[in-house]
Amino acid sequence: MSEPPLLTLVIPCYNEQEVFPPLREAVVSLLDALAPDLRTEVILVDDGSLDATWRLIEAFAADDPRVRGIALSRNFGHQQALTCGYDFARGDAVVTLDADLQDPPEAVHRMVARWREGADVVYAVRARREGETLFKRASAAAFYRILRLAGARQVRSDAGDFRLMSRRCLDALRGMKEQHRFLRGMVGWLGFRSAEIVYDRAPRRAGTTKYPLRRMVRFALDATLSFSILPLRLTFLFAGGLTAAILSYLAYVAARYWLYDVALVPGWTSLLLSIMAFGALNLVCLGILGEYVGRIFEEAKGRPLYVVREVAARPDGGPAAPVPRSP
Ligand code: UDP
Ligand code: MG
User: Which numbered atom of ligand 1 lies nearest the CA of 15?
Assistant: First the structure.
């Protein structure tokens, strides 16, 4: 009989010491429940935590050969931590979940079932967002609307990073080396056959959110800018609109002069306004351009997406290096 397929769970952790004990318990019972039909491994990526998270991960990895811990050299951010987990994953399929147990581990069974039916990507779509503030829900809704407006049509809204990917999808994703990573958009861009399951998003089990407003805004900006050049095109629209306005004004002035012989002497206000409007427009366009140039600059440097400080794995556990990408 051939070996059952291997499933990898990737869990990014940033200052999650409060939630770690229940997380560990939930992960172990999930692995045990999946056991007869699937082999499993867990990759816990410590994204530069400043609390006891790494010690807890080390202890877990020392007790369980299915578990490996990877510590990044500093805080690189959620998407980068996930990228690291993907590089170390050996599974035939990979599931990512948040450390705070907002993504219920039980849902993994349903995701696996869809994968076995032939889906390459299984999105977990949020039915309810319990324990999230009205503001968070409203901003999430606005975020997905703007994204779609900006042309990122492939992004499944209300699916976070809780998803399953098959090996071939993961390998394709690993070929995308961009620095500003908006993974759910990248996965959408890849295509493949997708399926979805619906789940109720639980409130965070313990600890506090690691996505304060500042980070959420940066994340949304990254997503929009790395997914479309619509903002750049908008500058054309602005410029076109203004040119039309100026031309009609010019026609109006000329007509007045030729038809009624009235010159516009008291044009001070409109003159000042139009100068200011052009100045502002120029600055806005420069700013948008600057954002993209900055991104080109960062891509051009070609830096690694994350830096690993150390790996915690038992000798009988998985390898302590990234898995080579199959072509
Ligand atoms: N996270 C991370 N690096 C960061 C911020 C967050 O690895 O810089 C992890 C965090 O530990 C958690 C997941 O990303 O497992 C989602 O973060 P959080 O639950 O704080 O976000 P929210 O659910 O509030 O959007
Ligand atoms: Mg959370």
Answer: 11
pTM for the model stands at 0.78
The domain at 6-208+305-317 falls in which architecture? Alpha-Beta Complex (3.90)
Nearest CA to ligand 1 atom 2: 78
Best residue among 20, 45, 100, 201 to mutate for probing ligand 1's pocket (most ligand atoms within 8 Å of CB) is 100
What strands, in cross-sheet order, belong to the sheet with 159-166?
Answer: 194-201, 121-129, 159-166, 93-96, 6-13, 39-46, 67-72, 308-312
CA distance 65 to 205: 26
Structure confidence by residue, pLDDT tens digits, 90-110: 999 999 999 988 888 889 999
Q: Which ligand is nearest to the CA of 102?
A: 2
Domain ranges of the chain: 6-208+305-317, 230-301
Strands 159-166 and 121-129: antiparallel
